[in-house]
Protein 1
Amino acid sequence: MHINKENYFQILKELQAAKATLVAVSKTKPVAAIKELYDLGHRDFGENYVQELIEKQSRLPQDIRWHFIGHLQSNKVKHIAPFVHLIHGIDSFKLLKEVNKQAAKNNRVIDVLLQMHIAKEETKFGFDENELLNTNWKHPARLIRSGGELHELKNVQIIGLMGMASFSDDMNLVRNEFKNLKHIFNKYVQPQTPNIKLQTLSMGMSADYKIALEEGSNMVRIGSLLFGSR
Ligand SMILES: *Cc1c(COP(=O)(O)O)cnc(C)c1O
């Protein structure tokens, strides 16, 4: 199995203009494929499953920046806390607190993104904007405005938002969902507090990253264009 180098260099070129980061999504793909991309100089890789991630992490070079992009269960955080670079899918305050706890145990500060629910589908995880404004302190995103209890979580840093558009051929729908996420991002980008510094907007996958870039993404998560279909 070989990676698609042509696509890789083409995508890098497109991202350069937008100063965006490429997270190469390697879920279900073998260590050899990751190593191939690594040897071209790539360091940011994304995985969805904890077990798979820790196994790959132990077998690959230690300077890889591992992004956890899947749905993370609280009881699994401890397995990735020692090394994970960025957790994209924080979708509850409970999970955020657990990341903070495990980060503290490892003597580090872990960067995270809040996952926003922007798609029409019910199945996608994440907050919606009402929850950002909800007076219920349990929603961490609201704390972006209030400061709230979040300042007590000294071992996490919220550095941005992540979202997935609807799985749809309707590119107008997809574009509007990205627009919406960018709009929310802009609204909360200020003020910056000690552990809330929104700077990363993770949106766009193989099928829709060009639209995502046009709508202001600065981090795309691309799998199949690089590694082939799953
Ligand atoms: C699998 C996955 C991707 C990559 O999808 P491709 O269509 O293969 O580019 C991106 N983001 C998340 C959250 C994923 O689960």
Protein 2
Amino acid sequence: MASPRSGAGPSPSGLRSLPSVRLLLEQAPHLRQAHGHAAVAGALRGALQAARAAIRAGAPPSGPEALIQRAAAALDQAARPVLRRAINATGIVLHTNLGRAPLGPAARAAVTEAMEGYCTLEFDVASGRRGERTQGVEPLLRRLTGAEAAVCVNNNAAAMLLALTALAAGGEVVVSRGELVEIGGGFRIPDIIGQGGARLVEVGTTNRTRLADYRAAIGPATRVLLKVHQSNFRIIGFTEAPDTAALAGLAHEHGLPLLVDLGSGVLHGLPLAAGAGEPTVGQCLAAGADLVAFSGDKLLGGPQAGIVAGDAALLAPLRRHPLMRALRLDKLSLAALEGTLRASLAPAPDLPVLRMLGEDAASVQARAARLAALLPGAELVASEAQAGGGALPALPLPSSAVALPGGEALAARLRQGTPAVVGRVQGGRLLLDLRTVDEAEVPLLAERVRAAMAP
Ligand SMILES: *Cc1c(COP(=O)(O)O)cnc(C)c1O
């Protein structure tokens, strides 16, 4: 290799030997046909620019073939969808950056059906007239939660914004200081309340709030008592908070509604260990909550959605509110939600999230061993998976991973391929956690790893 000519300026002969864009364009008719003249010219200019920089750094000049190849690679890269399939080998079941809950077969089929052509989104087939957008999901939500009615919007943040705006604008919302949570992605309960035009009245302390604290805060301007699931953190030790039933009793004594932001919408059928201590939507309503808000893509295992379930009369102002039109769900999400809820009616719902949370450690280990056997230099190691998505932070999820030499460099190659493979780098090795990898993905994952490890 030639020595870098630092300070000596560019090598004129090397730079001069590079072909022109016009010459390269003439030699690449196949690329022009596939990508169009302008895109190919741009890619060739990019390749030439890189070649010039390389020459200045001391590399020999590239020939036309190499330059065209580099441009072709850049064009292929640019043509690949940015939003593409990923294999989640992080061990985080509800990985917000990877789309949270993967959909089950019923939801996927429903989405495909709804996007084939037109669909009965707001059409009542019995009368032939306009129907309700949520006609498919509402009866299912009633059956699954015992609620009188339900309203569906884009996500739980939207559900909370809508509920607090419709019920408490101009008034006060009473909430415990121990529940002023930030969920991530900038969702903060105090901001949502403020955005809805209500005033926040904080009661109690971070670790202890008593029923008497709520009682003392209730005044003529109070519109709603709010209880928020702590979701992504736990305060342990000297803590106290009234339960839903006690809070509902107090609210009803004063003719006020109790709104519960449950975060993750557990319907039923959570695997026993995973479900320990997590109240379901139905239990929350049965304990006296008037409205319960929850996400569609956390433990419910469906698409991004926010649902407010509960008292029909209290939901009426939500339905009528102008925000409803801005926050309503689209047809594909509604189809996925209906499919997910239908699957949830089964005694053992076929939902990936529930399967991943409930699988026993030995079965995960067996899958990790199968992957390790396909990969030279791989080692089977113990791992710790997580529910993620701000759900069940204290839940231990023993798991197994395949450890590979190659660290960040290998991780980067795997991330950038198709499908993207996402693991975690630890101590210079890449760990692929198998709790979040489906059995059917193992051969493809092995193929991608082998290709990425090839010299
Ligand atoms: C996750 C969460 C939210 C936000 O839900 P999205 O569906 O992500 O908008 C709100 N409140 C609580 C308590 C949560 O856990």
